[in-house]
Amino acid sequence: MQNFIYHNPTKVIFGKDSIGKLSTVLPNAKILLIYGGGSIKQNGIYQQVVEQLEGHSWCEFSGVEANPEYETLMRAVSMVKNENVDYILAVGGGSVIDGAKFVAAATDFEGDAWDILAKGAKVKSAKPLGCILTLPATGTETNTSSVVTRREYNLKLPFMSDHVRPQFAILDPQATYSLPTRQLTNGIVDAFVHVMEQYLTYPVNASVQDRFAEAILNNLIEIGPLVLESKDYDLRANLMWNATQALSGLIGVGVPQDWSTHMIGHELTALHNLDHAVTLGIILPRVMQYQKEHKREKLLQYAERVWGLSRYDEEGAMDLAIEKTEQFFRDMGIKTKLSEHNIEADVADKIASRLEQAGMTKLGERQNITPKDVKQIVSASF
Ligand code: NZQ
Ligand code: ZN
């Protein structure tokens, strides 16, 4: 196992009616409530939040898009400055929470805030924030990452900072009842791929991380189809906690990580506006196939422990595990081929050169996925 430091100070308030505990964790400060396109008004969460804000000085910013946009977020930054906001409360899915993280960092940043994303400029401080999660998927509610899109450049870029980790995350599984099937599907597949990016690499004898990752994968395979059919509270609770744990940082400590599927996927969203999870469902099976030899040991372990496949026929077990992974995504409703999204073959060249321009020339846990390999991986996705 590799050395690591683990510190995740996000306070998680989990369970039925937990939004009712918001007032107990909000500081006495001027608060900005930031949210998306209005789903929280339709499902009653906005009202619950407003009740909890009673007695606080607060203002609101709405309209954070799916795949949050830089320009929108910079308008929120102006509001934070003009209204003297000192605490940010994000209520929504990954896009709203990621957006709030960027706003928190950009407000304090000296210089051009775009540099945080484009040049990896160091975030030295940020406005404190807390969140209420309405879509189990990204894990952003307890982690340090954020992904922001700048439409004028067709760029979708991540940044990470300890300063933007939410101080609290309220997770009420009932908030998921209003989710359309498409978003539930996205959540299941995104969480699954988060685990795979941290698990399907090479062995370093990290037994807790491995078994914990396998547990999440097995859970998602088991509850995925059921969640799409039912509003059973316990199913939703389990989906929510599995998705949080998939990217809280815990299963990723002390192990090599891949993330090539995500980096290629972000390009597909930037260029073709595909949902984040859809891009992952398309690319992951191809990365698994392309990197089969480099991932051999973990792929066999995955085949055996997650899909119950015998190692007797190693080649067959690996191929079947890849096939079953893709079939799982398809069963969830994801179209896993680029041709099913009317995307032209030249996208492979485009993505390879865009990643090269962005300096992402050595992807994967072995840094052996070059733009030339990316081109082949994308080409195999039709
Ligand atoms: O905008 P509103 O009205 O809130 O509607 C949203 C949006 O249209 C809707 N929604 C959310 N909760 C709902 C709901 N509709 C009904 N009922 C509810 N309870 O769902 C739509 C999609 O929301 P979005 O936040 O975009 O989805 P998701 O949570 O999947 O987030 C995706 C974003 O997160 C990034 C992705 O790249 C993408 O930009 N990621 C962030 C990560 C991180 N910070 O660690 C890791 C991930 O890999 C990912 O890259
Ligand atoms: Zn993801």
TrEMBL record:
GO MF entries: alcohol dehydrogenase (NADP+) activity; butanol dehydrogenase (NAD+) activity; metal ion binding; methylglyoxal reductase (NADPH) (acetol producing) activity
Entry GO terms, CC: cytosol
Pfam families given in the database record: ADH_Fe_C (PF25137), Fe-ADH (PF00465)
InterPro entries given in the database record: ADH_Fe/GldA, ADH_Fe_C, ADH_Fe_CS, BDH-like
Cofactor: Fe cation
Domain of life (superkingdom): Bacteria
Protein name per the record: Probable NADH-dependent butanol dehydrogenase 2
Occurrences of domain Alcohol dehydrogenase iron-type/glycerol dehydrogenase GldA (ranges): 9-173
Origin species: Aliiglaciecola lipolytica E3
Family: Belongs to the iron-containing alcohol dehydrogenase family.
Fe-containing alcohol dehydrogenase-like C-terminal domain residues: 187-381
Keywords tagged on the record: Oxidoreductase
Gene name as annotated: yugK
Keyword Oxidoreductase: yes
PANTHER family recorded: ALCOHOL DEHYDROGENASE YQHD
